[in-house]
Amino acid sequence: MKGFFGAAAVLTSIIIWALSYPLVKILLNEGIPPLTIALLRHLVFIPLLPIALARGKINYSRKTWLILISLGIFTVFLPNVTQNIGMIYTTASMTSIIQSSSPIFTLILAFIFLGEEKSLNKVIGAIIAMIGIVFLVSGGRVELTGTTFGNVLILVSSISYAVSGVIIKKGLEEINPLHLLCFEITFGFLFLLPATLLMEDIHMIFYFDLFDWFLILILAIFATAVAGLLYYLVLMDVELSRLSIITYLIPVFAVIFSHLLLKETISKSAIIFTLIAIAGIAIASFPTKQGKVLK
Rounded to whole angstroms, how far apart are CA atoms 256 and 244? Predict the structure, then answer.
């Protein structure tokens, strides 16, 4: 998917993902445990699995199944656990900003594992952006307490998404996008289930009100299914490193949604560090000039 429709699909995904941050924060503020949120938003989608799989044959090799299982870990289990727990100790706006560091790690991984262009502007931009993210995560000082602890957990989820991006790009070479999404959600749910049962009281789901279930349904249908599928369709035809840069629009929309729904504010220092990181990504996205490609 390229051109206007590709751009529209990516923008739709970004807006949906940005909205998911304050929605998760609302559920956390309602007293719903983080792993339970992650588990339910994927459980709701699983009944649709048979319908999705009926649209194509499944005859995957052992390597392909390994890719799908890995996606369950790096796309669903690890980022959801670290993100949802991290958001207990930080704000939804800060979460979205830190997670936008994923393109930095994606650039590096795309160079190494996908053989994408190693341009000088990408390297310089990634370094500048990394500096901004380090100061953003630490708040200017490195202390694993309070908000910094939450920010570090969010950073782990960002790195996990970068790893999953490379795996997804490889997987789309031989796996139907809808099948890939369905299996990654299924395996992710299977990994989340024992962790949730061990760490949280899942019986509280019987006390959810209609509003809680409504938010979980929105997260499941739009943030998990629709946004993911649209992104995968575009990723089939676009470089991972180039597409990942566009995700820097997520903090812009997330800050707006968080202000409207949660009345959150962003500190001046956070804005400065964010601008440094975004400047780095902007440099990395400049067209490569002849002779500026690294060997």
Answer: 21
Q: Count H helices, E strands: the chain?
A: 15, 0
68: CB partners within 8 A, 6+ apart: 60, 171, 175, 180, 183, 184, 187
Angle made by CA atoms 118, 99, 178, in degrees to the nearest 5: 80
Determine the Cα–Cα distance for residues 168 and 109; give it in Å rounded to an integer. Answer: 12
pLDDT digits (tens, 9 = 90+) for 35-64: 898 899 888 777 767 766 676 667 788 889
Q: Phi, psi (5° rounding) for residue 144?
A: -85, 60
Closest by Cα among 240, 244, 173, 199 to 13: 244
Instruction: Go through the chain and tell me how many residues it has.
Output: 295
CA distance linking residue 154 with residue 156, whole number of Å: 5
- pTM value is 0.78
